[in-house]
Amino acid sequence: xxxxxxxxxHTIEKELVTNKYFLVSARVNEIxxxxxxxxxxxxxxxxxxxxxxxxRERRLENLKKMIDDLNYQIQFIKDIAGRNIGCVMINLKxxxxxxxxxxxxxxxxxxxxxxxxxEFNKILSKDKANSGRAHIDSITIASDLxxxxxxxxxxxxxxxxxxxxxxxxxxxxxxxxxYAMVKASKGFSFYHxxxxxxxxxxxxxxxxx
Length: 209
What we know:
By secondary structure, this protein is an alpha+beta fold. The protein has a single domain (about 5-209), classed as Aminopeptidase, CATH 3.40.630.30. The protein contains five helices and nine strands. A nine-stranded mixed beta sheet has the order 1-2-3-4-6-7-9-8-5, sandwiched between helices. The two termini are about 20 Å apart. Residues about 1-20 have low confidence and may be disordered.
């Protein structure tokens, strides 16, 4: 999938500028670039990168499999000059969430189409083949462009594209301190949760498309 989007963003000086960004599917020979963006996403989300060279190599092998997997979309975010300014990874058939602790408190945007706790858990627990849900595994933007609305525009465009393909929901998860991700994810309902595999506090977000 490839598409272009136009957006208006405010710079730090509050001057209005217009930019065009493109999502371009990553190729196998670009896997090292994907790995670099993947580590940046990990640092932003958790505060640390890969723990060892072996950890990095395992992740590289996983990314190679993901590029060839039709259930994944790995795409570079490019500007009109062709510069990679970010990367987004979408799982088109995410597994059901099975948290070890109940999802409790909530953080909602004012404009969010609120999803109550019961519905939230019901949607996340559905078998991936029948869930109608896609999941943003990661999204990262170049540091000099963060806070300018690029992430929000990319998520909005992904939402429109996924909805046109029949998806009903879009989910994501991020660290509890990743305020930039929460800010960029307009329309999502967020609940606190501690995933069983890490037992570290996370935020799970869900949005109706």
